[in-house]
Amino acid sequence: MNHNEFKWIIYQIIFQSMMKYINLIMVVLISFRLLCPIIIEAETSSEITPTEFYNQTLAIFNEEGLYHNEQPWIDYYDEYQQSPLEFNSFASMMLELTKALRIVGGKHSFIVKKTSHIDKDQPDLFKYPSVETLEDGILHISLPETYNFFTVSNNGTDITTEFNKYTETVLNPIEENRQNIKGIVLDLRNNTGGSHAILFATTNFLFPDGNLLSFYNNKDEKIGGIKIDNTTLSVANNYENTYAIKRLSQLNVPVAVLINEYTSSAAEYLAIAIKDATTIDSKLFGKTSAGYTSVLSGYALSNDTDLLLATGYLKSNEGTDYKDTPIVPDVDSKTPLDDALQWLSKTSLD
After folding, report:
1. What integer is the mean pLDDT of 183-211?
2. Buried b (16+ CB within 10 A) or exposed e, 173-188
């Protein structure tokens, strides 16, 4: 090995180490962004004391949290009952409450500040899919995250126009070029989730009618799931939301799904359903996903805060349980698009 090759190896090691630290910093910053507004505004509120807030929220954790029957939470709650905590500030209370939340709800649970108003017309608030026709009749569909759709909708704002724009960006080209499509690359890399309804409505042409995923609570009772019935998509978690969708019949072509370490939440739901709930030939390429595959429930807390708590888990149509379980791709790849195209070329010819 010459001197230049040695230097190059050292540079690569340093770069990879730096990227790990950068990812860690990003996680910390995101957590701080979620937590900080709650602490600041709660400190000025006299509606409830920090200790009362903690006790009320912990009661929800103990009853509804996904991991409420597992030993780490049992130990935490036993200690809390034996030695109740008192807090002089919301800042110290929120730090302890976040620790408890991670134990009982896992990494997919958050306490967030309510947003009084979101201007849905602000530029770049919503991201929309892209559709590209590649060689040999392959369609490359990239689906971006839909978190802001979820946030704005939960704020009570009508997003029907934006919902339809997202779905029809994909469905219209499928409908218009159906006969020429030989395979699909569905790109879910860096899709951090958001609205299950939008993602499944957008890709309804991949599925037959029927149940696509099932949801179970922390008592292992089925509480709902995601299903398609003709032109109706339903997402049920204790209560049911239904959506009128532009329904396309199932497209019988092979589908390559691209995922990576940032594919999470609703995007993981979609990848699981494609893997287990469709009759078409499909394969996952890329890197293991983020593992945010628990089912969330929302609770309104005091001081204008909301709790998004993991209260259940997914079960695929094949019977596999996903409880914050990452999705392992069929083909681990650093060049997933190239590998997917190679597989599609061979599969569509076969």
Report:
1. 96
2. bbeeeeeebbbbbbbb
The verdict on domain 130-348 having CATH code 3.90.226.10 is: yes
* Residue 52: DSSP 8-state: H
How far is residue 193's CA from residue 308's CA, in Å, rounded to a whole number?
A: 14
Average pLDDT over residues 210-234: 96
What is the amino acid identity at position 216? Answer: Y
CA distance 7 to 4: 5
Residue 312 phi/psi, 5-degree rounding, is -155, -170
Q: Helix, strand, or coil here: 277?
A: coil
| pTM, entire model | 0.85
- Do the Cβ atoms of 347 and 338 come closer than 8 Å? no
* CA Rg value for the chain: 22
> Is the alpha carbon torsion for 8, 10, 11, 16 positive or negative?
positive
**Cβ partners under 8 Å of residue 278, min gap 6:** 206, 207, 208, 250, 255
Which helix (H) or strand (E) segment holds residue 259: the answer is strand 255-259
Could you give phi then psi for residue 16, rounded to 5 degrees?
-65, -40
Which residues of 197-254 form beta strands (DSSP E)?
Answer: 210-217, 222-229, 232-237, 239-244
Three-state DSSP state, 270: helix
Residue 114 in tokens? 């309510």
pLDDT for the residue numbered 349: 58
Q: Closest Cα to residue 292, out of 211, 146, 194, 175?
A: 194
Q: Which helix (H) or strand (E) holds 9?
A: helix 3-43
Q: What pLDDT digit, counting tens, does each position of 74-130 carry?
A: 999 999 999 999 999 999 999 999 999 999 999 999 998 876 667 888 888 999 999
| The total number of residues written for the chain in this structure | 350
